[in-house]
């Protein structure tokens, strides 16, 4: 096994200029990540330098078998924390051979919103709090929980320390450092309220890059849990009963919200979000109704509420924002399995472009 480890960690730059590019895309479920690698003649710094590629869409639920070729368009590059050196991870979106985005390509539609002049002028910032749960591979039960049983009730686990409270910290720390190495704007991590549940934060990121960074951070986490023999779950309510669900709270601001007088702009934006509450909820993740019950730091799924420092609201405004009269707000409705391209672009569309 030591030889295998030595080979995996070979430094290619000692013998060749060639690099390995891992092309990453989203499968037919909208959450499953797929990837494959190819050799390139030398280092690459911009997606435009990368060749398009293809894959068998019928094997990922994205194309029929009789016309299965789907084309990958490279969109964002990150350093590869697994192969290291000049090797890269490449976030791609998918198109038909004729150049049309396939129906499940959410990035293409998001890019249209983020390239709109009115949105560009507002420089939208996002900070996404991605919650997730680590599961034991054989039994699909949270890491560290007794088989067929339950740990003590919630309370000591949030940001907790100790072998009976922080379950899976080695995975979480490995992911944190790997994301920093890759160039992801990961801004922090913490243990969550339910044992075996954790969170990482991405941002502040501008526009479409927020979606790219969340997806590559998810990919890196999938790879690390693969190595650890642990299953990664983005289910918004992995355990029934009096256990917290998992969300992807999305913090948001625009240029005018960050300037003097921005609090009035924030209140108008929140009013618009309330008018489109049902449309947003429908796009904010599968199974969210199991999480948004009104009992675990969330508002009921059918209710739109906002408040200052209120973690039981749909939209939370921080005390600092209220005091400064400018800043950002937090949309607490997105589920952990949301598509960040959909959520970020929809928030921008509703608050900047939509005219009620």
Automatic annotation (TrEMBL):
InterPro entries per UniProt: Gln_synt_N, Gln_synt_N_sf, Gln_synth/guanido_kin_cat_dom, Gln_synth_cat_dom, Gln_synth_gly_rich_site, Gln_synth_N_conserv_site, Glutamine_Synthetase
Top-level class of the enzyme under EC nomenclature: ligase
UniProt-listed Enzyme Commission number(s): 6.3.1.2
BP GO annotations: glutamine biosynthetic process
Domain GS catalytic intervals: 106-356
Location of region: Disordered: 41-63
Catalysis performed (reactions): L-glutamate + NH4(+) + ATP = L-glutamine + ADP + phosphate + H(+)
Gene3D superfamilies: Glutamine synthetase, N-terminal domain (3.10.20.70), Glutamine synthetase/guanido kinase, catalytic domain (3.30.590.10)
Keywords for this protein: ATP-binding, Ligase, Nucleotide-binding
Stated family: Belongs to the glutamine synthetase family.
Quaternary organization: Homooctamer.
Name of this protein: Glutamine synthetase
Protein source organism: Securigera parviflora
């Amino acid at each position: 096994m030591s030889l295998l480890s030595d080979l995996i960690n070979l430094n290619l730059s000692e013998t060749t200029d060639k690099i390995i590019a891992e092309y990453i895309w989203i499968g037919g479920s909208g959450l499953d990540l797929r990837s494959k690698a190819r050799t390139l003649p030398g280092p690459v710094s911009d997606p435009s330098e990368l060749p398009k590629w293809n894959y068998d869409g019928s094997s990922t639920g994205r194309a029929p078998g009789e016309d299965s070729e789907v084309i990958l368009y490279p969109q964002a590059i990150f350093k590869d924390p697994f192969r290291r050196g000049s090797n890269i991870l490449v976030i791609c979106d998918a198109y038909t051979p004729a150049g049309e985005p396939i129906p499940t390509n959410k990035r293409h539609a998001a890019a249209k919103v983020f390239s709109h002049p009115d949105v560009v002028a507002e420089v939208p910032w996002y900070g996404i709090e991605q919650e997730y749960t680590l599961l034991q591979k054989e039994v699909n039960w949270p890491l560290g929980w007794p088989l067929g049983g339950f740990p003590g009730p919630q309370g000591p686990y949030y940001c907790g320390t100790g072998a009976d409270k922080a379950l899976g910290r080695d995975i979480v720390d490995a992911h944190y450092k790997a994301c920093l190495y890759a160039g992801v704007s990961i801004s922090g991590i913490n243990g969550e309220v339910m044992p075996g549940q954790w969170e990482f934060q991405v941002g502040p990121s501008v526009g479409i890059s927020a979606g790219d960074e969340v997806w590559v951070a998810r990919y890196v986490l999938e790879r690390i849990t693969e190595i650890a023999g642990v299953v990664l779950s983005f289910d918004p309510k992995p355990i029934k009963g009096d256990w917290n669900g998992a969300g992807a709270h999305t913090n948001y601001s625009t240029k005018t919200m960050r300037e003097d007088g921005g609090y009035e702009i924030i209140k108008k934006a929140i009013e618009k979000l309330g008018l489109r509450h049902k449309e947003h909820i429908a796009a904010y993740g599968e199974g969210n109704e199991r999480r948004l019950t009104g009992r675990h730091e969330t508002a009921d799924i059918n209710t739109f509420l906002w408040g200052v420092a209120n973690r039981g609201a749909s939209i939370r405004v921080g005390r600092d924002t209220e005091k400064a009269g400018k800043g950002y707000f937090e949309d607490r409705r997105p589920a952990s399995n949301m598509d960040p391209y959909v959520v970020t672009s929809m928030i921008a569309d509703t608050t900047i472009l939509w005219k009620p």
